[in-house]
Amino acid sequence: xxxxxxxxxxxxxxxxxxxxxxxxxxxxxxxxxxxxxxxxxxxxxxxxxxxxxxxxxxxxxxxxxxxxxxxxxxxxxxxxxxxxxxxxxxxxxxxxxxxxxxxxxxxxxxxxxxxxxxxxxxxxxxxxxxxxxxxxxxxxxxxxxxxxxxxxxxxxxxxxxxxxxxxxxxxxxxxxxxxxxxxxxxxxxxxxxxxxxxxxxxxxxxxxxxxxxxxxxxxxxxxxxxxxxxxxxxxxxxxxxxxxxxx
Length: 247
What we know:
Blueprint: E1 2-9, H1 13-24, E2 40-47, E3 50-57, H2 63-71, E4 75-82, H3 86-99, E5 103-109, E6 112-117, E7 125-130, H4 144-147, E8 153-163, H5 166-177, E9 182-184, E10 187-191, E11 197-202, E12 207-215, H6 218-228, E13 237-239, E14 242-246
Parallel strand pairs: 1-3, 4-7, 8-11, 12-14
Antiparallel strand pairs: 1-4, 2-3, 5-6, 6-7, 8-12, 9-10, 10-11, 13-14
Helix pairs in contact: 1-6
């Protein structure tokens, strides 16, 4: 397993995409026409071998619209974990459902399979995915490696989830993924065996609040975030309700 993609729900797709391009230095987004079936439009940015997605509702019945309303504004939306292969995904989904995880949607496209789990006990929609081969990522469209821009941000290294009870939230993710949480210098984390982590921090509610990033050019990141007025005292930049935290 590895952390492969994080999604943000935002009311204004173009403004959010522009801010991400400016501060993170990302580019080459893929606009997936398939998300229209969910009442959405999106942009998927390749960052090294990882991906950042922005989804915006275009229909009143879209789940993302209700999510934004519930959170009181733009917010973290989904954490996508890639399983080793399709057979492994099947076993992991069966195990997660025995624990009690509720699969709310699943689909297949171009040899890839995805299963989404209800966010009620997880703080965000969790998705377990598998690709035709380990290096593929169908959701980013064709030619994503050529479109990736990593001069400022090299890769996504983690997702940060907040909770009034971080230990309980970590236990829920442990049950979902079958990987025990452990103590790190900054709190609890689940380290995924093939890359990335899910970190758990104190917070007012269960929510996806941060994206940890490895930077190639921290000075540029800070300068652009400062110019936009989104740079915090801790060095993180907040865009669309989500903190982008230099790892």
